[in-house]
Sequence to fold (239 residues):
Amino acid sequence: MGLTGQLAILLMATCYVGRVDAADGPIVQLNSADYPYLVMVVGDDNGDLTISPGVFLSTQLVLSHVDVGFGDTAYVVVGGKNQPVANVWTNYNVAVYKICYKKYAGPFQALTPSNYFDFATNVTATIAFFYGNGTLFGQTRTVLATANCPQEYTDTGIDSSFISTDGSEACAQFDATGDCSYKTLPEKIYPVLVINGVVVAIMNNARCLANGLYNAPSEFNVIQFYRDYILSVAPDAIP
Fold:
């Protein structure tokens, strides 16, 4: 199913043992009321409109994709209103954006390690993303255990050195029929990975062809790996 003027991807949670046959779900519209912690971060990347979900860590700080909230026109959509980004901290893997608005009261996403999936097993998850009109969409994908990722890359003809096994990255299993048409839109769309209601990772590389189909495993930056850095720039986040 294509996108045409629409948005976002998400993850659910069914565990598997060992390798499974990938079967990405269709792109479907999600009920934003089921994901109240997701906000839309919009910015400019070398002249291209960029959009990604983000999560509030505290009243003014939002965790999101590293390439999104830059430029003088960057903003976070809060309660239907565009709130300008005042400052950005990044280690080039994740980014924390500070908005001027000081009245956001939650919900917040805590950084408590026990809340986060550990990628020790394969799991069926949801990737979530917004499109320019603010609609949230989702797609279920099989996310592999960290230990299984290098072989998945080798099996699909990709150098396994492209995926880290130190816990900093997660990978979604390759499905040659998987729909990634969200990456063929004029805007640059960056999904997040959601497991058990928690945003656990941010997409780094979708590995999507111009025809809207995946051509290799997708890669995600794992939030917990960067927990210490995030807390260093967002000390009022819930640890």
